[in-house]
Amino acid sequence: MRLLVTGKEGQVVTAIKQQAADKGIEIVTLGRPEADLADPESLYAPVIEAKPDVIVSAAAYTAVDKAESEAEIAEAVNGKAPGVLARAAKALNVPILHISTDYVFAGDKTDFYVESDETGPTSVYGLTKLHGEQAVAAETDNHVVLRTAWVYSPFGNNFVKTMLRLSETRDELNVVADQQGCPTSALEIARAVLEIAERVSSDADPKLRGIFHLTAQGEANWAQFAQAIFKGQQERGGKAMTVNPIPSSQYPTPAKRPANSRLSGDKLAVAYGIKLDPWEKSLDECLTALFSNK
Ligand SMILES: NC(=O)c1ccc[n+]([C@@H]2O[C@H](COP(=O)([O-])OP(=O)(O)OC[C@H]3O[C@@H](n4cnc5c(N)ncnc54)[C@H](OP(=O)(O)O)[C@@H]3O)[C@@H](O)[C@H]2O)c1
């Protein structure tokens, strides 16, 4: 199987590349400098030329706060480019897997969000990602939208690596405690993406198409997530840290984030039999990888 994945050095694409090698899956990446998602139409020809069996739309403009002042670029990359990829998928008669986000939701639900819940993004990033989902669905029925959340990994930039870096110079940190979500490892996302890609490349069942939530089991707020990271650091011989839980009002950011963006994975479990590990277990795997490089 040949997979075309957008992005080159992103967390999810890197995890996909790593794991595909072990499974004998061929990966073609499409990203900068050759391909710029901010110029969506330029993507069509190289995708057609690559003749993939499945397209994975993993790249995105992920700078949530910066997107507030770069709405046009964010819209091109997140809102428009996925539609062009989906049009190419339709022309090639292959499925497209598109990675989306929990930030398509407003955050005012008290329970976990399910796929059929009404969307209501509170940020430019969330709105442009919602447009991307819609653009994909408008081009082809042969799509799988995978909404994930709070992505971290041993690669790139993410909350886990930021916390570990800050702990090198600080003994305590104030961390927001009034946003609830599902921290999800890119390693887990990659495993699921490869499994889903294999399924949809050979199974045309409509029940395998549509929107699915792909997040780790369990829930946390950012302060609890930070506490777990530092507990893992200490267990590996690193220093102890104090985390002071604070409200979002004490940590103002340009983008407003949902207070609750916990996603239910039940639909994915029923359709595909895929359930990601509890986030604490995946965090342990990520910390082990990070500390083995130290
Ligand atoms: N990170 C999260 O917390 C989070 C949460 C929910 C959903 N998601 C979604 O999960 C997916 C994967 O995210 P991630 O964490 O792997 O992101 P990431 O680590 O920030 O990587 C983003 C990737 O997109 C590429 N990219 C961005 N703008 C581009 C452009 N104009 N042209 C070409 N490539 C471009 C980047 O390329 P360069 O290396 O050249 O910059 C990079 O490879 C995205 O769809 C994201 O929206 C992420």
TrEMBL record:
Give the cofactor note text: Binds 1 Mg(2+) ion per monomer.
Top EC class of this enzyme: oxidoreductase
Question: Which pathway or pathways does this protein act in?
Answer: Carbohydrate biosynthesis; dTDP-L-rhamnose biosynthesis
Record's Gene3D superfamilies? NAD(P)-binding Rossmann-like Domain (3.40.50.720), UDP-galactose 4-epimerase, domain 1 (3.90.25.10)
Its recorded name reads dTDP-4-dehydrorhamnose reductase
Cofactor(s) of this protein: Mg(2+)
GO BP of this protein = dTDP-rhamnose biosynthetic process
EC number(s)? Answer: 1.1.1.133
Q: Which GO terms describe its molecular function?
A: dTDP-4-dehydrorhamnose reductase activity
What keyword terms does UniProt attach to this protein?
Answer: NADP, Oxidoreductase
- Where the record annotates domain RmlD-like substrate binding, the positions are 1-289
Which family, according to the similarity comment?
A: Belongs to the dTDP-4-dehydrorhamnose reductase family.
Q: What task does this protein carry out?
A: Catalyzes the reduction of dTDP-6-deoxy-L-lyxo-4-hexulose to yield dTDP-L-rhamnose.
Q: Which domain of life is it from?
A: Bacteria
Per its record, the protein catalyses: dTDP-beta-L-rhamnose + NADP(+) = dTDP-4-dehydro-beta-L-rhamnose + NADPH + H(+)
